[in-house]
Amino acid sequence: MLDLFISNAYAQGAAAGQPSTAMNFVPIIAVVAIFYFLVFRPQKKQIEAEKKMLDTIEKGNRVYTKSGIFGTIVGMTEKIVDLEIAEGVKIKVLRSQLGGLEEAILSNKQDK
């Protein structure tokens, strides 16, 4: 009956070799590589595309803002864009808050 509560101690074979410390870092390196290719790299490409778009906009372009307002550029400075959203209605928007050209978003909608 005591055999249920007490286990017998048996001699064990020689201890297995420890994996090298370099092998301990392989999973960490794999996770970093996955994050780079799935998160950081696409985000970097998106930022570069947005910068290119902001550098190419000019007066008269139809654009949309990141908040969803469509308008025509009637004036620009280095940091601020004047948008005409309706006839005679102008607003000032930070240049960095422009989402893109109107034709890009409308052509995607028509393709579907």
Description:
With 112 residues, the chain is of the alpha+beta class. It is 41% helix and 25% strand. The protein contains 2 helices and 5 strands. The protein has a 5-stranded antiparallel beta sheet. Strand 3 (80-86) and strand 4 form a beta hairpin. The N and C termini lie far apart (75 Å).
Helix and strand topology:
Layout: H1 21-56, E1 62-65, E2 70-76, E3 80-86, E4 89-94, E5 98-101, H2 102-111
Radius of gyration: 30 Å
The topology string of helices and strands comes to HEEEEEH
Quaternary state reads single chain
According to DSSP, the number of beta strands is 5
Mean pLDDT: 85
Overall structural class, as computed from helix and strand content, comes to alpha+beta
What share of residues are in beta strands?
25-35%
Distance between the termini: 75 Å
What share of the residues lie within helices?
40-55%
Count of individual helical segments: 2
Strand adjacency order, main sheet:
4-3-2-1-5
Low-confidence stretches: none
Looking at the structure, what is the overall shape? rod-shaped
Largest sheet composition: 5 strands, antiparallel
